[in-house]
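New to this. Please check this record:
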Amino acid sequence: MATYHGTPPWVARAMLQLAEVGPEDVVYDLGSGDGRIVIMAAKEFGARGVGYEINPELIEKARAQARAARVEDRVQFVQSDLFAADLRPATVVTLYLFDSLNLRLRPKLQAELAPGSRVVSHRFDMGDWKPDAERRIDESVLYLWKIGETGRTAEARR
């Protein structure tokens, strides 16, 4: 199991701001850890959210923190491998995964997310998939991709 490194709160907020998250959004955090991004999306941005995390201890911590933040009616946490997630309901996907995982995940993002959906990654890019925006915060870079018909793979457009 990979080591968990939580996204600092100011970076999580910047990620959600870069993706222009609002009350109409459904934010999926893949590898959600203790749930901080999904909880922040609900509490500060009015969005709904789903966190996918493989570690059962982190899932329990996330659920407890959602209760404490009084957003448990707007968020859920699923113990699952992130590659098993059905991404179609998401309008925003947040990532803090190594670049090798981002590259493996890229075809799934492009195939399952609807045009207009946004993907924002902390620190790690997607190879030759050029981001629509980059923002430097502290010592990290945030990357934003917007799914559009031109950004989707040929297989996804069929």
Observations:
- Helices lie at 9-18, 36-45, 56-68, 99-112, 154-157.
- The mean pLDDT is 90.
- Residues 131 and 145 are 5 Å apart (CA to CA).
- The chain has one domain: 9-157.
